[in-house]
Write a structure and sequence with these properties.
160 residues, single chain, 10 strands, Thrombin, subunit H, five-stranded antiparallel beta sheet, 2 domains, mainly beta, binds zinc ion, elongated
Amino acid sequence: MQVQADKVVVFHYTVRDSEGAFSESSEGREPMLYLHGHNNIVPGLEAEMAGKEPGAKFTATVPPELAYGVADPNARVRVPIKHLVRPGKLEPGKMVTVNTQQGPRQARIAKVGHFNVDLDLNHPLAGRTLVFDIEIVDVRDATEEELEHGHAHAPGTEHE
Ligand code: ZN
């Protein structure tokens, strides 16, 4: 079965950024799965997945605009340290959770002051070209529930 819209794709991956500053892998863990055609993975990778079959191994190089977007230098806010959730030791580059009017959100510290921190609201991988090594393990039909929810369900996970 080929990867196409409304199929669930089970795959192993290693991803690294072009600067070598980040890498992550499913090696030694359960494979990932996603529902194809529902924007559940970055668009550049989803496009490369299309038409592939179980057993396929390939490398996909995905530019920022097809991954987590181009970094916006204006996406910075200054917030009081007291608005951080369990801040711990504060230093640039660290991810923290900040309470906002829209609820808690994750952001990366750009600069630390005495009473405030400047947070970079860009996704941590914004502006990065990502290189994925993919191995497709399985491609299956989505269940009705998965189609209704718009995402894949891992075995043994149930939710409303
Ligand atoms: Zn669901």
